[in-house]
Design goal:
The chain is mainly α. The protein has 19 helices and nine strands. A three-stranded antiparallel sheet has the order 4-5-6. Strands 1-2 form a two-stranded antiparallel ribbon. The relative contact order is 0.13.
Length: 500
Amino acid sequence: MKKYLYIALITITLSSCEKQLDLESPSELTTAGFWDTEEGARTAHTGLYANLRSSGENLWLLGEMRSDIWGGRTYESASNTNLIESNFTEATAPFGGWAGLYTRIHRINDFLVNAQNVSFINEADKNHMLGQTYGLRALYYYTLLKTWGEVPIILEPVGAIDPSDLSKPRSTQEEVMSLIKSDIEASLNAFGSDNSFWAGNRNFWSKAATLALKGDVHIWSGNLLGGGASDFNTAKAALEQIAALEVTLAESISELWGVGNDGNSEFIFALQYKQDEASNFYNSLTGRSTEINPQFDDKGSSMIDFVIAGANRYGQSEKTILLLDDNEDSRKDATFIRLYIDDNGGAGYPNYNEPAYFGSVFNKFLGQVIGSERIFENDVPVYRYADVLLMLAETKNLLGEDPTDEINHIRERAFGENYVEATHGFTNGSQVDNANAILDERYKEFVGEGKRWWDLRRAGDSFVIDNVSFLNPGDEFKLLLPITTDMIGRNPALVQTPGY
């Protein structure tokens, strides 16, 4: 992929849908000659992933920041506190311009229409690319639906731009969900029996990724849009296929994180970051050496040699600290480096001690130190097999089946040699108790991976209200974001999200 990233995707750069609405007269976008060759199509295909990666931070914020994970102590000025606290109006709402996702969709639409007509030496390559692209469009529209509910549906590439043509109303959630499911099936049809990862690389979408998305989508539609058992059974069937597609659970947490572990068999689809190409955004969850070096970790070891030049804009909530405060669970140390103001006489702080607690450094995506510089070049998974197992547990619970095997598979990996079934094993209970146990397991497993807010939302409104302290009964309308006043001004066909 890397060799294409510096090639121009297109001779004319498309601006976002909302900015296009500022045009005063129609104009023609031309890509004459661009779609005449396989090389042009391959360049456009690679550009789709550069586009996706540039949206990585927004996707993370949308999927996690409004949950209960963050909002705790930082040792620098905090970021996105209004988002964490769901404290916004239509005038101050975040992600104006639909978080830029329609720009990505425009380019995907362009690919889907034009690549069909390009001759490939190996037509199977074109089919694989089309499978990837339909999957990516489903991912984008699913993100839009989860965030705003009703959103405009745009399926044609932008050619002749007329502002009136772009003033599209919001389609219903059911219509958007129907499109998402249709794109998922188009993706699977294009992949056919090709279960491979493109170029052996999990930084490209795959059939396994489409099946993971299919499971995710059908749990959402079954639970929130009235699809019920039919959707849950569809989700279960999709998720159960993935184990046969060269995807497995890593034996230990230590095999997941670190640059040397990128491309492991648990990752189904991950955003790629490379030195001198693009850095991930997790330096904002770390800090500066001037603040970190005088502190001690929770083992009592000095941080004096820790190399970092980041920022500390997001602090784990006390709820997160306490949830992960289990020394037998390998996810505790794998997720955060807890910082304390002293070494406690060399004994460290084996359990959370608030008076001496200084803050934390997020540990999953710390990149690597090269010379005197830390390079944030970890790949960041969008789906991994642990996600599949716990979504499978969700579907089983929603169908009234026993989710014990899937939950315990995750717990056994987390506790390793410390695992004792009588102590750590899951016991099947009521559907609500099981749902809460699955949510807690996903909470511990996916901190920092952009999952928690979506997990709570997918479980149902009551689970969001019960877990997020900034939301109360009566705030259910806030689960969807408003569209900004400016967006409505540029697209008069839009109607505000109910409740705002």
